[in-house]
Amino acid sequence: MSLLGPLVVAGVALDALLGEPRRHHPLVGFGNLAAGLERRLNNAAGGSIARGAQAWMLAVVPPVVLVWWLAAQPVIGWLVSLVCLYAAIGWESLGAHARPVAQALERGDLTRARELVGRMVSRDTRALDEEGVARATVESVLENGSDAVFAALFWFAVAGAPGVVLYRLANTLDAMWGYRSPRFLLFGRAAARLDDLLNFIPARLVALSYALCGNARLAWRCWRSQAPLWDSPNAGPVMAAGAGALERELGGPAIYHGRAEERPLLGAGPRATAADIDRALLLVRRSVLLWVLVIVLIWGVSHA
């Protein structure tokens, strides 16, 4: 892509300055479409893998093809690419959701902190203590940073506007359908597996970035020894390396949809506190700047 470097800088800058679109976000409309498809096609107990794959194709392929055509137009192509990248990145929103949790904890308002972190994670937050709220928030920042920021940048660098739209829509469907509940056990399997595939390389680059921007030795050790124990093949490396980079202990038991899960411990060091939420956001910020620098340097060398 001839304008890759400038478009990445502009897209990241727009997100940092403006945040996510406050109104008429395209992902909201896409989510409504996906919900309608799911209601129409997932009409049996647990659905089926074939119907889930069909729904995925119907939801994702048309907008990706449309964006591919628009981005190829000589006059508006660069603007379409910039808008798609801006809409796909969720860097500023990480801080917009996480900082109020830290502020509530610092005020001693645990009830409010539980409520706020409950908007970020799928686990039950009603009985969390201060450490549990801080831990859940840090984990969300590390994992969502990978999903909402770095993977979007990766697929934009690899395949331009169609790539970033494909990734963002696939990631949205995984968030909507990729549960192991009776309703989505089969229907959501295609969405979950495709999201795992699209995140495989970006997640490992994110883990490397967290290591380079924090305690590299501890991050590498935790990544190597703890990531294989984690249930998710992509969240494991990201969160293990991030926890090691921050020198904090994450993971451990959590309640999801009324069921207690004994998750492995990640990282090493003291338990998370409110201050570690800002440290996690700083780690993501440094990693974003590292990615932008690398992408611009590669783009510059290729156009020298």
Write the layout of secondary structure elements.
Elements: H1 4-18, H2 26-41, H3 49-71, H4 77-88, H5 91-107, H6 110-118, H7 130-177, H8 189-212, H9 216-226, H10 235-246, E1 249-251, E2 254-256, E3 259-261, E4 265-267, H11 274-302
Helix pairs in contact: 1-4, 1-11, 2-3, 2-7, 3-7, 4-7, 5-6, 5-7, 5-11, 6-7, 7-8, 7-10, 7-11, 8-9, 8-10, 8-11, 9-10
Please describe what this structure looks like:
The chain has 304 residues and is mostly helical. It has one domain (4-302). It is built from 11 helices and 4 strands, in the order H-H-H-H-H-H-H-H-H-H-E-E-E-E-H. It has helices spanning 4-18, 26-41, 49-71, 77-88, 91-107, 110-118, 130-177, 189-212, 216-226, 235-246, 274-302, and strands at 249-251, 254-256, 259-261, 265-267.
Write a concise keyword list for the protein shown above:
304 residues; mainly alpha; two-stranded antiparallel sheet; two-stranded antiparallel ribbon; 11 helices
Give the strand line-up of the largest sheet: 1-4
Number of helices: 11
Largest beta-sheet details: 2 strands, antiparallel
Distance between the termini: 14 Å
Shape: globular
Structural class: mainly alpha
Radius of gyration: 19 Å
What is the number of strand segments?
4
- Quaternary state of this entry equals single chain
What percent of residues adopt helix (DSSP H or I)?
A: over 70%
Order of helices and strands: HHHHHHHHHHEEEEH
How many domain regions? 1
Give the rounded overall mean pLDDT. 92
Contiguous uncertain segments of 5+ residues? none
Taken as a percent bin, the fraction of beta residues is under 5%
